[in-house]
Amino acid sequence: MTFISILCALLIEQLKPLRVDNPVYLLIQNLAAKIEGWCNAGKESDGRMGWWILVALLTVPTALIYWVCVQLNPIAALVWNVLIVYMTLGFRRYSHYFTSIQQALSAGDEAAARVFLAEWTNIDTTGMEVSEISRLTVERALVGSHRNVFGVFFWFLMPVGPACAVMYRVAEFLSREWNEPEHMQNEAFGAYANKIFFYIDWIPARLTAVAFAVVGNFEDAVYSWRNYADRWPNELIGIILAAGGGALGVRLGEPETKALRLSADASAVDVDSLDLESQPGVEATPRSLQSVVGLVWRALLLWMLLLLLLVFFRMAVM
Question: Mind telling me which residue stretches traverse the membrane in this protein (predicted)?
Answer without folding.
Answer: 50-68, 74-91, 149-171, 196-215, 295-317
